[in-house]
Amino acid sequence: MIKTCLLHELGCSVELCEELICRTPEYQFLKELMSKNKMFSEE
After folding, report:
1. Dist CA 2 CA 28 (whole Å)
2. Is 40 in contact with 9 (CB distance < 8 Å)?
3. Model confidence pLDDT, tens digit, residues 8-27
4. Contacts of residue 4, Cβ cutoff 8 Å, sequence gap at least 6
5. What percentage of the chain has pLDDT greater than the value 90?
6. Residue 40 falls in which region: left (phi positive, over 0), alpha (psi -120 to 50) or beta
């Protein structure tokens, strides 16, 4: 399971990402794409 989101990769805090991005439907969709494509490593 991917623990970091795109903004975290760009240097945002995990808390900020969890609140603003990781809970949004758009991010959930991106997370599934990333999981399928394995384009982003788990960190």
Report:
1. 10
2. yes
3. 565 555 665 556 656 667 76
4. 14, 17, 43
5. 0
6. beta
